[in-house]
Structure formats: structure tokens, C-alpha cells
From TrEMBL:
The keyword Cytoplasm applies. InterPro entries: PhoU, PhoU-like_sf, PhoU_dom. Its main location: cytoplasm. Residues 17-104, 123-203 form the PhoU domain. It is found in: Cytoplasm. Plays a role in the regulation of phosphate uptake. Belongs to the PhoU family. The keyword Transport applies. The gene is phoU. Keywords: Cytoplasm, Phosphate transport, Transport. It comes from the Bacteria. This is Phosphate-specific transport system accessory protein PhoU. It comes from Kibdelosporangium philippinense. Pfam families: PhoU. Homodimer.
Length: 217
């Protein structure tokens, strides 16, 4: 009985790791589509988001069965509860990558971003992918030390988001209001993606320590 329970827990962890990897791939591809105006790649991100949605449903169903049938306690209970919260965050991360891809599709064949902003969003995309991959590592290893690494990467992402407003407010901005609105919305997608990833990393550390950081959401 115990072996079966442990196998189900391991399977649940594997599902979350897979969701994290799907979110990382989705944001990587969405960013590539944004920077290169690749409509086919954007469409693929939009279509593949169904995989993340389905994975969340499966993960939540399995977690609820474990709660109902196995009555886990202590660290096992923390793992199942963390899985429920993390599955929701991971689905939202997939949605945010989808929103980036949808922006590409909506503006095609026009480039969404002016040349001056592309390096900024390339950096934001790289940080977002790193955070999703860190979430996968945290779920797999439950190392509390990963919280600091994720917080540092998220801080860089937040700085890029906040400093964008100074760029858009600069008097020589000559790319129009529509371009500025797109840039702000896209920046918010990346910033929120990072916030969800950090929340997952913190909750994964909670499984080991039993202590939830105040910053967790």
C-alpha cells in the first residue's frame, strides 16, 4: 500500500515537472515568435497551450484522489497541497506565453516591437525561461536554496519591467501609442510569468521545511 502511495506521489511530481518544462518551452517559443515575427511559431504556442490545460486537470484530479483516498500527513500532505497550487500557477504561465503569441498573431505581418525594445524583451524572455526551468528543478529536488536564485532572476525581470516605463516616457519616443501599449502589456505578461514561477519555487521549499515564505502567493 505504501509503495503504491509513493509511486502516486512520484507520478504527481513528474506531472508538475513536465508542466514546468512545457511552460518554459512555450515562453521560449513565444519570445522567438515575438522577436522574429514568426506567425507559424506563434500559432504553435497557441495550439499547444491545450496540453498545459489538460495537464493541470489531470494533476488536480490525481491530487484530489490522493487527499480523499490516502489521507496524507506531514510532508506528503504539504506535497499534495503544493501540487494543487503549483498546477494552477503553471497553467497560468502557459496562458501568459499564449498571450505573447496571440499578440504576434494579432499584429502580423507587422513587427510588434520596435528595434529599440527587442534586446530588452529578449532578456525578459531568457529570464522567464530560466525561472520556469528553476521551478522544474525546485519541484524535482525541493531544495530551499533555489528560492534565492529564483528571487534574484525575478528581481532582474521586475527591473526590466519597471524601467520600460522610463523608456516609453522619453521625449524622443517615435513609435506611436499602439506600440507603447503593446510593449507594456507584453512586459506585464513576462513579469507575471516570473511571479508565478517564484511562487512555485517557494512552495516547493515549503515541502521540505514546513515554513512558507511571506512572499509566496
Amino acid at each position: 500500500m505504501r509503495n503504491s502511495f509513493n509511486e502516486r506521489l512520484d507520478h504527481l511530481v513528474g506531472q508538475l515537472v513536465n508542466m514546468s518544462q512545457l511552460a518554459a518551452i512555450a515562453m521560449r517559443d513565444a519570445t522567438d515568435a515575438l522577436l522574429t515575427c514568426d506567425l507559424a511559431l506563434a500559432e504553435r504556442v497557441i495550439t499547444d497551450d491545450r496540453m498545459v490545460d489538460l495537464a493541470r486537470s489531470t494533476c488536480e484530479s490525481d491530487a484530489h484522489l490522493l487527499l480523499a483516498l490516502q489521507a496524507p500527513v506531514a510532508g506528503d500532505l504539504r506535497l499534495v497541497i503544493t501540487a494543487l497550487h503549483s498546477a494552477e500557477s503553471l497553467e497560468r504561465m502557459g496562458d501568459l506565453a499564449q498571450h505573447v503569441a496571440e499578440t504576434v498573431r494579432r499584429r502580423y505581418p507587422r513587427q510588434v516591437l520596435p528595434t529599440v525594445l527587442r534586446p530588452r524583451f529578449e532578456a525578459m524572455g531568457a529570464l522567464a525561461v530560466t525561472l520556469a526551468e528553476t521551478a522544474a528543478d525546485a519541484i524535482r529536488t525541493r531544495e530551499p536554496e533555489l528560492t534565492g536564485y529564483a528571487a534574484e532572476a525575478d528581481g532582474e525581470l521586475n527591473d526590466l519591467h519597471r524601467s520600460l516605463f522610463a523608456v516609453l516616457d522619453y521625449q524622443d519616443w517615435a513609435h506611436g501609442v499602439g506600440s507603447a501599449v503593446d510593449a507594456v502589456q507584453l512586459s506585464q505578461y513576462y513579469e507575471r510569468f516570473g511571479d508565478h514561477a517564484v511562487s512555485i519555487v517557494r512552495r516547493s521549499g515549503f515541502i521540505t521545511t514546513g515554513t512558507m515564505s511571506r512572499e509566496a502567493s
